[in-house]
Design goal:
By secondary structure, the chain is α/β, with parallel strands linked by helices. It has 13 helices and 20 strands. Helix 2 (about 50-85) crosses helix 7 and helix 4 runs parallel beside helix 5.
C-alpha cells in the first residue's frame, strides 16, 4: 500500500470519557479501502470493561451537560459545527478512502452533517414546553427535560451523516451519548469526535466505541444508566435491538430499511424524470435506505422512460471516488458486491432481461455496473428484498390504483417517490403511499429542518425537524397549586 494513503488515514481509537484508548483486549479488525482492497488501518474493539467505562462516563457527564443550559451547550456545539465545515474536505477524503463514495459526495455529506448539528442546536434552545390556561389558583405547565444518556448504533453507508444524526440530536437536547458506529468506516466518525473535543465538549458527553455489534448492544441497551436507544440499520437487526429495548422498558427510535417505489405517471416528461431518478439511484452506489429501488411506469411512457433511464445509467462514470469526474464509487465490501450479484442472477434466472449492466466490473475493487432490469417476474427476490445497490427494476402499469397497490404491497414504508404534472394526482399519491418520506417530481434526500422516518417494518420515530428531538426529551405535566 502507498505511503500517501497511510498518511491520509487517521489512527483509530476508542473515545471514552475524553480519552483516546485502544481497548483493553487488543482485539480489532482491518479497515479496507473498497476501491483498492488495500488495508487502510486497524479499528480496535471494545472489551466489556471498555463498554462499562463508556456507559459510566456518559452517566457521570449527563447531569453537568444537562444543567449547563442551552447557552453553554449551543456555544460548544456551534464551534464543533464550524470545525466540521472547515474540515469537510479532509474528513470527506477519509470517508472516500474507507467507504468509497465520490469525493464531492463525501464532502457534501460532512457539510450536511454540520448543518444538521446547527439546526438541532438551535432547536434545542426552543425545547421549553408551554403554559396551559387553568384555574385561578393553579399553574398548569408542560416541561421538557433531557431523557438521559443515550445508546446509539449506526451502519456504514453514511459515515458522517449517520452518526451525526444521533450525536447532534442527543447533545442538542442536553443528553450524553454512547455510540457504536460501523467498524467498516471508523475514520470519519473519529475525526468528527476530535472536532467536538477541540470545540470544548466536556469529557464523557460523547463516547465512541467499536466492537462486535451484538456483544455491545447486549451490554449497552439493558444498562440502567442508558435511557434511550437510537438505531439505524437493517430490519432484522432493528427488530432484534427493539426487542432488547422493550425487554428493558427503554424508549427507542428505529430507522430501518426500505424498498422505495417510484411511480411515473403518463402526464410527466419521461426523459426528464428518468434523468433525475438516475442521479438519485447512483448516490452512494445505491447503498441508501431511501434509494429509489422499484420503478412502476405508466405503459404510455414506459418505453421512453426505460430507454432514457438505461442510457443515463450506462453513461455513469464508475471508479475510485478520489479520481476526477467519478460519479459512482464501489460497493462497501465484497459481501455487498456478492449480495447485489445474487439478486441480479436470481431475477435473470426467473426471466428478467438485463438492459444494461448486470455484472461486477473486472479488476481490483468492489465495483458494480449500474444495472437496469425489465420483465422482472413478481417472484424475483429483488422485488421483495432491498437491493442496496445500483440496480433498478422497471415495470409498466396500466392503472394508477393498481400501481399504488403494488407500491404498498411490501412490509416496508420508508420512502416513496412519484412523477406527475397533475396536482390532483400528486395529492392522491401523497395520500395513498404508505411511507414516511415522500417526494414528488424528484427523489429528494433528508433535510435537517424536516422529519424523516418510516412506517411498518421501516421503523418508528423521526429524525430532523422539531420532531427529531422528541425521543431525546421527557415531557412532564406539572400542576402547581398556589398557596392561599
Amino acid at each position: 500500500m502507498s505511503t500517501l494513503k497511510r498518511a491520509d488515514y487517521p489512527q483509530i481509537s476508542l473515545y471514552i470519557d475524553g480519552r483516546w484508548v485502544q481497548g483493553a483486549g487488543g482485539h480489532g479488525d482491518d479497515v479496507i479501502n473498497p476501491a483498492t482492497e488495500e488495508v487502510l488501518g486497524r479499528v480496535p474493539f471494545a472489551e466489556p470493561g471498555d463498554v462499562d467505562a463508556a456507559i459510566a462516563a456518559a452517566k457521570a457527564a449527563f447531569p453537568k451537560w444537562r444543567d449547563a443550559g442551552p447557552d453553554v451547550r449551543s456555544g460548544i456545539l456551534h464551534k464543533a459545527a464550524a470545525l466540521l465545515h472547515q474540515r469537510a474536505d479532509e474528513i470527506g477524503r477519509v470517508m472516500t478512502l474507507e467507504e468509497g463514495k465520490p469525493l464531492a459526495e463525501a464532502g457534501g455529506e460532512v457539510h450536511r452533517a454540520a448543518a444538521g448539528l446547527q439546526w438541532n442546536t438551535e432547536e434545542g434552545r426552543r425545547a421549553y414546553g408551554r403554559i396551559i390556561p387553568s384555574a385561578p389558583d393553579e399553574i398548569l405547565s408542560v416541561r421538557t427535560v433531557p431523557v438521559g444518556p443515550v445508546g446509539a448504533f449506526v451502519p456504514w453507508n453514511f459515515p458522517a451523516g449517520g452518526p451525526m444524526r444521533k450525536i447532534s440530536a442527543a447533545l442538542a437536547a442536553g443528553c450524553s451519548i454512547v455510540i457504536k458506529p460501523s467498524e467498516e468506516v471508523p475514520g470519519t466518525v473519529s475525526l468528527i469526535a476530535r472536532a467536538f473535543e477541540e470545540a470544548g465538549l466536556p469529557p464523557g458527553v460523547l463516547n465512541v466505541i467499536f466492537g462486535v455489534p451484538d456483544e455491545i448492544s447486549r451490554k449497552v441497551i439493558p444498562d440502567p444508566a442508558i435511557r434511550f436507544i437510537a438505531f439505524t440499520g437493517s430490519v432484522p437487526a432493528g427488530k432484534h435491538l427493539a426487542g432488547l429495548a422493550a425487554s428493558a422498558m427503554k424508549p427507542a427510535h428505529m430507522e430501518l430499511g426500505g424498498h422505495a417505489p417510484v411511480i411515473v405517471c403518463a402526464d410527466t416528461d419521461p426523459v426528464k424524470a428518468a434523468k433525475t431518478a438516475v442521479r438519485a439511484k447512483v448516490v452512494n452506489a445505491g447503498q441508501v435506505c431511501t434509494s429509489p429501488s422499484r420503478f412502476l411506469v405508466d405503459r404510455r411512457v414506459y418505453d421512453a422512460f426505460t430507454a432514457a433511464f438505461a442510457e443515463a445509467m450506462a453513461a455513469i462514470k464508475v471508479g475510485n471516488g478520489l479520481e476526477p469526474g467519478v460519479q459512482m464509487g464501489p460497493m462497501v465490501s465484497h459481501r455487498r458486491l456478492a449480495a447485489v450479484q445474487k439478486l441480479v442472477d436470481d431475477a435473470v434466472s426467473a426471466g428478467a432481461t438485463v438492459v444494461t449492466g448486470g455484472k461486477p466490473i473486472e479488476g481490483t475493487g468492489y465495483f458494480y455496473q449500474p444495472t437496469v432490469l425489465t420483465g422482472v417476474p413478481a417472484t424475483a427476490a429483488i422485488l421483495a428484498e432491498e437491493p442496496f445497490g445500483p440496480v433498478a427494476p422497471i415495470a409498466p402499469f396500466d392503472d394508477l390504483d393498481e400501481a399504488l397497490e403494488v407500491a404498498n404491497s411490501l412490509p416496508f414504508g420508508l420512502a416513496a417517490y412519484a412523477y406527475t404534472d397533475s396536482a390532483a394526482t400528486a395529492e392522491k399519491l401523497i395520500a395513498g403511499f404508505e411511507a414516511g418520506i415522500l417526494s414528488i417530481n424528484h427523489c429528494g434526500g433528508s433535510v435537517p429542518q424536516a422529519p424523516s422516518g418510516g412506517v411498518k417494518d421501516s421503523g418508528y420515530g423521526r429524525e430532523g425537524g422539531p420532531e427529531g428531538l422528541e425521543g431525546f426529551l421527557v415531557t412532564k405535566r406539572v400542576s402547581h397549586k398556589l398557596a392561599p
